[in-house]
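hey so i finally got around to running both of the ones u sent me last week. sorry it took forever, my laptop kept dying halfway thru and i had to restart like 3 times lol. anyway pasting them below in the order u listed, first the sequence line then the structure token line for each. didnt double check formatting much so if smth looks off just lmk and ill redo it

first one:
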Amino acid sequence: MEALSSRACPPPPLHTLQPSRLTGFNRVFAAVYTGAILALLYHRSFKLINSTTLPSFFISLSMLISDLLLAFMWAATQPYRMRPIYRNEFPDNLGKIVKESDFPPLDVFICTADPYKEPPMGVANTALSVMGYDYPPEKISVYVSDDGGSQLTLFAFMEAAKFATHWLPFCRKNNLVDRSPEAYFASTNSWSSESEEIKTMYDSMKFRVENVVERGKVGDEYITGEEDRKAFLKWTHGSTRQNHPTVIQVLLENSKDKDITGHLMPNLIYVSREKSKTSPHHFKAGALNVLLRVSAAMTNAPFILTLDCDMYSNDPSTPLRVLCYLLNPHGQSKIGYIQFPQYFKGINKTDTYACEFKRLFQINPVGFDGLAGPNHVGTGCFFRRRVFFGGPLTLLSSEIPELGPSHVVTKPIQSQPIFELSHKVAGCNYENHTKWGYEVGFRYGSLVEDYYTGYRLQCEGWKSIFCNPKRAAFLGDAPITLVDLLNQQKRWAIGLLEVVFSKFSPLTYGIRSMGLLMGLAYAHIGMWAFWSIPITIYAFLPQLALLNGITIFPMVSEPWFLLYVFLFIGANGQDFLEFILFDGTIQRWWNDQRIWMIRGVTCYLFGSTEFFLKSFGISTQGFNVTSKVVDDEQSKRYEQGVFEFGVPSPMFVSLTAAAIINLVSFVWGLFSLVFRGRQLEGMFLQMFIAGFVVVNSLPIYGAMVLRGDKGRMPVRITTISTFLACGLVAAASIALRD
């Protein structure tokens, strides 16, 4: 009877999914809106065909191109809305299905590259937070890739390894949720004597690390043991960030190192790959592939977590949520990775620069998840090691059997054979004449290795899952200055275009491999830079036409006017609804719209220009701008929601010129209405667009003429922009003359 009862009771669920209630509405709205877009394109084409002058032909052609691109980008967002789904996990049920001793090992990859731009204490906090997972510590191996080859970073992790022997037992004993020491001490107000003792230890470690970073070298007084001294001797004389030998240091080994309570510690391994100025390094993708090979030689865990150096764990139960999918026996063989969203700490109340990226990290992945799964976003992702060696049905063999995903490591990680193999596979010439980066591992060929790798994996047949628990699994840092945001976005735009214009373009290869909807969804992200064309046209052309008395939109009394109203309200209304349903606010949505327009005339415009210049072999180094370190004044202005323009950037020129021209055209339109007797009916839409831009440009006008702080618009940017605006107005008055 007991056997029959056991057979009759199914195992408890590990996860569930629920389709979005908006699915039906989205599909109906898409059909209606498609009809409206076709009507608009017909109207634009009719005006183009019936153009009687060269200026009217140029205006009609420009507006048609703009609207075609807007229509395509809108169509490419529709796959996200066809079948969005929401998931829930039940990690408490894991214990009823699998024993903790049977949990699979986990390798964690953390990448850093510069101890001055990415402070080692922040990287150490990220490592400590994942070492403290609610997971068997002897099954966790944390690999830290230091692409800058800095002794400062190694010293920080030597200190972190010692502190971890006290920190991990403290976390277990007190059942802490914040396992990042910095986050915990910042959020805790009540202190016990034990907490005070741990905080004193942490502050002491932090002082030593920051003192070493400030001095730029590790003094002899900080080197306490012979093993530590030998580690720092691994750097040869004349080593630089771009030219240094392989350095691999095992800081903690789970077979012998224990914490103060006698529990085994996780593995903690520092890796700095060999670099040479004569060998390509492939940026972050190259560093991750080195970690793939080194970890294969040492531990070869079947699952891998990749993290940015500033993205610390915010929930110690995160690996258990992942196991709810990866250990589920039903239909999970093609699941290649589990992607968590990126959430950021320190964003101000109104998210001035739209750094939350709500669509990229929260809204769109829900839609992706209803198809074949979300794209990879660079951090907070749990991979099967197997995905890096071919598709689900095609296993690509490794050039060394020990690197294969099914190889079982039987030797200690500090044994001589393991040590020699690890150094060999971290060499700068190891990948020559191999499949690494092209068919195996993280993929080369784009600055956005995350997007490209996830895209290629899904083209090979792998599926993915979006896991978005109520408590954020990871928290990271976001840009708090406008120039940092725009430089980041410009780099993304260039990397995405590298994929779009490759033989693996989502519009061709992607659609053939994954189907129309997934191909379009990836194309939408890949073609972000194309937003610059319609946004730039709408930012300048209607306003310049208004200054020259040319009407390019229907009059208010014409039926076509209602079509434009519907298209504007429909697109923005649906976008607003989605934003609010994902816990957004009206102010944040407005700022998100503003930053979208700003990106269109700045980083997207400059990024696409830089990409095409590079494609023709023209140097573009002059476009790269290095921002200053954020100081206390910048942080204060950010908290107040004040825009930061203090660092001169060429991208501010086009932005400021657009703001000036829209203000001039709007004022001229008002003047024409009042003093020249022009009818509002014919120029309403042009006036509306100019006024809309003016309202969104108020922070720019304030930075140009009202502010006196260091974040104001540089005078030379204002001067150049004014001359550019005057030149455009003058050129338009000539070109648009009948």
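and the second one:
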Amino acid sequence: MRLKISLLKEPKHQELVSCVGWTTAEELYSCSDDHQIVKWNLLTGETSQIVKLPDDIYPIDLHWFPKSLGVKKQTQAEIFVLTSSDGKFHLISKLGRVEKSVEAHCGAVLAGRWNYEGTALVTVGEDGQIKIWSKTGMLRSTLAHQGTPVYSVAWGPDSEKVLYTAGKQLIIKPLQPNAKILQWKAHDGIILKVDWNSVNDLILSAGEDCKYKVWDSYGRPLYSSQPHEHPITSVAWAPDGELFAVGSFHTLRLCDKTGWSYALEKPNTGSIFNIAWSIDGTQIAGACGNGHVVFAHVVEQRWEWKNFQVTLTKRRTMQVRNVLNDAVDLLEFRDRVIKASLNYAHLVVSTSLQCYVFSTKNWNTPLIFDLKEGTVSLILQAERHFLLVDGGGIYLYSYEGRFLSSPKFPGMRTDILNAQTVSLSNDTIAIKDKADEKIIFLFEASTGKPMGDGKFLSHKNEVLEIALDQKGLTNDRKIAFIDKNRDLYITSVKRFGKEEQIIKLGTMVHTLAWSDTCNILCGLQDTRFTVWYYPNTVYVDRDILPKTLYERDASEFSKNPHIVSFVGNQVTIRRADGSLVHISISPYPAILHEYEQTMWACLAAMAVANRDMTTAEIAYAAIGEIDKVQYINSIKNLPSKESKMAHILMFSGNIQEAETVLLQAGLVYQAIQININLYNWERALELAVKYKTHVDTVLAYRQKFLETFGKQETNKRYLQYAEGLQIDWEKIKAKIEMEITKERERSSGSQPTKSTGLKH
């Protein structure tokens, strides 16, 4: 990934540019010490002066009023706040009219920021005061007052806290009075800029010590850069929280959210005092010390799946490379590409107006449909369908482009959803609640309605990351999640009245992923990489869970690694320095998952072949062959081992051998009976006549069989032996009972003389 820089030959401003802000993805406003506010149209390349401010107003910071969340009509911002060196902030319309000027601070107003809902404005100044104002510019409160200038300020994701600078310190202060304040030393020099992202909840800071740093919302350090040559004058998060940009003297840097650098550019800009990301997160604008406004497009993003590699080469062009045969396809789009995802043999691309769905089998004919709202912030894929998240909602589509559902819940904010807080499987959508972070909402994918009895999943602690397993039946669907204590839990998705168990799988887990081909889970624990080959073991026998794990040392991945993907038996991990490490795990457990039915069937056949009917019974039960399980059960209850052997042979279809075993053992009645059971009437009568026993039994069963089907006897042999014979069922039953008793006694008493019995 890199930045494609565009810079005009001659600057449009005469003095340094102090601040920039986007209204749409193609329109930008810039303010300068030359008192001009200039509008830039990136589609036409035109610039126009909106207004020339009075000579005593030197602009310092600009922030557009946020678009109404979830309202599709307002596609662009209409008013912005401009802070200036004269101690005032000004509310200025899109057309350049100053709607209101408010005396705010003694000395310059160094920064001003709307909260996410647009209900409040925070300003900070050289006088060390932090003030909260209403939407119309009425003072609500002075949040804090300190002795040093406050250079930068940012709202917390929930608009309930404010982050601001105090010399070398960072301070997070909640709006509620008497709430606990968090303060820590962040830099060795004065902190010049901060930013706090609403999606990933991470904080950026930049200082005169020439470093930029990444923090979590508890003030714990996640990344610290090497010192640069010059102070870091600006930092800014991309809207989705996956990237951030850093500005310094003649320097523009693109970084991953974990801190490592994708690209470093050295444009001729002077110091970059302010950075703004476009609404769709595809480009950056920088306010430069030499009067320029620098624009940079994020290009050469890369997506990989199995043997395919897709690269965004230009704003509207992708290159697909099949690494097996080096075949290359070029994909052209009408509008600029905003988001893309490659998984499950499909590439899903969202542009500013449309969504394209490509199959990896055919890159020439994508399926295209129009988007409800342009800016897609997240694409998630499952085997059967994919999910799009934009400012208006969450939408599920099939790979044929058919709209399936749009789940909703109270207080839903789609602008803060990411891959850690939303998960998708073939039948389920899981979304972590932002208002109460202990709650996970579960929806049926096909309808968008809440799962089961409509109850959400509630945990005792705040949840950080969620992931649904991808294979198996809906009733067996499981969700794994990591809570704020870094404990990993698993529970069932289907919830009907009864409280499902939430079971702990591991501790100190930082990142997790399910395999896309079977329900195997992997995670990075404190010092090791762990694979749970069968996580459901915790529901069956927790004692053997350690025996179902694969563990290896994770020190090679350094600090804060992240699992990127788990495809087949290959896990891809990104280290803190940005390098990718590929780990192959044993393929055999995955094969066991995939071919479970096949393996049970093979085991059943092997068990019968080796006369192990106990194992055979279990194996047949596993593949749902109930009639065979019942037959095996009846075999186990037979009195003699010769009878058992004969029935096992019959089970395998060896009727002749079964009969021979019984006759050799002197079990003539049993030999006759198996022929009766198989409706082998000719042979049954032949044996009865030959051994002069149970002729009446054979005739009785034959008569009963014919009566059942309403038929008359036509067989000459049966007619011959039935002549003048009266069937007495009481007598026949007594004879059969006697045969069984005789066999039982014989088998219990004939163990030592086994050979004689067979000879006889």
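quick thing i noticed on the 2nd:
The longest helix spans residues 729-749.
anyway thats it, ttyl
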